Amino acid sequence: MSLLALRAKLDRLSEQIVARFRDRAWFALNPAIYVPGAIPIAGRPELSLLEWSLEGLERYHASLGRYEVPDQHPLLLEVLQPSPVQRAISLPRLPKVPPLPREVLIRFYLDLLPRLCKPGDDPHDYGEVAYTDADLLARLNERIYLGAFVAYYKLEREPHILSLVGQPEVLRAHLRDPDREANVLAQVADAAQRFGCPTALMIEAFEWIMARALDLQVCFLQHFAALRAEAQSAAQG
After folding, report:
1. From residue 53, how far is each of 9, 127, 199, 224 by CA, in Å?
2. CA 223 – CA 97 distance, rounded (Å)
3. Inter-residue contact 154 to 161 (CB < 8 Å)
4. DSSP character string of 203-229
5. Sequential pLDDT tens for the chain (237 residues)
6. Are 108 and 137 in contact (CB under 8 A)?
7. Which residue segments constitute the domains of the chain, with CATH numbers given?
8. Which residues lie below 8 Å from residue 226, measured CB to CB, with a gap of 6+?
9. In 10 A of CB 27, how many CB atoms?
10. Using an 8 Å Cβ cutoff, are 129 and 98 in contact?
11. How far apart are CA 22 and CA 5, in angstroms?
């Protein structure tokens, strides 16, 4: 995969995310879905229906081998089992960097929902809404985590950027691509208009998403530089 191909994947994912926000906007807010214990789950009283749905979705994806692919990372790593599915993987296996904490992503999502959905609570829709929520969170997580691969391909193109890891803000500024960011936001605005989503809200959401992906780029390069320094020290020692 090249940086160009990776950006095409990111653009497809952005389109899917806007479409799923449109799907979520069809339903009322349904706040009970997000409160642990508000919707009883036998044997799991500590979970909200959102958490239960996300756990089920990621267990299913894990069973198919999704998280064996290096550019994928689950939100609930601690509950997943290895997949029995065997397949050849050609993407490079990058040094693992911590993804955006799921609590941060979920809080961003829950703060956005009241501005997207009409108020109200309808138990008939709980299942479909919880599934839509979980699917959206998984897509948002993937969109952000791909920042590590963006950083990897930028590093291949510009090896000297490792010299900036000790200056995070300088590195962050160097990694930014204002033209690319403007292009992404223009595509998001177009998708929002086509899908009937609030354009300003979608742009605001993607500005946040791209900022978190940029955070991950910085984190990945700092981690990569630290691992390289350790390897060089061990070789010399």
Report:
1. 26, 8, 28, 34
2. 7
3. yes
4. HHHHHHHHHHHHHHHHHHHHHHHHHHH
5. 688 889 999 999 999 999 999 999 999 999 999 999 999 999 999 999 999 999 999 999 999 999 888 888 899 887 788 889 988 888 878 888 888 899 999 999 999 999 999 999 999 999 999 999 999 999 999 999 999 999 999 999 999 999 999 999 999 999 999 999 999 999 999 999 999 999 999 999 999 999 999 999 999 999 999 988 888 878 876
6. no
7. 3-236 (1.10.590.10)
8. none
9. 21
10. no
11. 26
For residue 35, what are the contacts with CB-CB under 8 A and spacing of at least 6?
48
**Predicted pLDDT at 201:** 98
The length of the chain in residues reads 237
CA separation for the pair 35, 181 (Å, rounded): 35
The residue type at 51: E
3-state secondary structure the chain: CCHHHHHHHHHHHHHHHHHHHHHHHCCCCCHHHHCCCCCCCCCCCCCCHHHHHHHHHHHHHHHCCHHHCCCCCCCCHHHCCCCCCCCCCCCCCCCCCCCCCHHHHHHHHHHHHHHHCCCCCCHHHHHHHHHHHHHHHHHHHHHHHCHHHHHHHHHHHCHHHHHHCCCHHHHHHHHCCHHHHHHHHHHHHHHHHHHCCCHHHHHHHHHHHHHHHHHHHHHHHHHHHHHHHHHHHHHHC
